[in-house]
Task: structure prediction
Amino acid sequence: MTHTPPALPLRLQAIVEEFQDAEGREKLDLLLDYAESLPPLPDWLAAQHGDMDQVHECMTPLFIYAEQQEGRMHFYFDAPPESPTVRGYAALMAEGLNGVTFDELMAVPGDFFNAMGLQQVITFQRIRGISAILAHMKRLATQTVA
Result:
């Protein structure tokens, strides 16, 4: 059994454990379930889509916007419905990391997703995109807090 990496915020840790408990195709199904749960952009952000940061390392056009409210980070994601893998990962990142502090976000290891076993069901190229999403979230948080 793969162990959960240290320093994960509680909600993200619960997601990692959920994926650890899934086997084979169940992991992909779980990721697709997350894809369906990605909330739409709020109207104010949809009107200012150009303010979102694109994750160029992803094959799919994925956009992120970060803001800090009362010392907590909040992230908004926009990914096309026809890209459920990337959309699913964006949704689980939003669920696992929205509301964390800057320090909690920075403490998340860049390879935390390896404990989820996703490399068993998605390609290496998709895995690279996943790590780029977390890197972008950290960069945007740094800019937002500065």
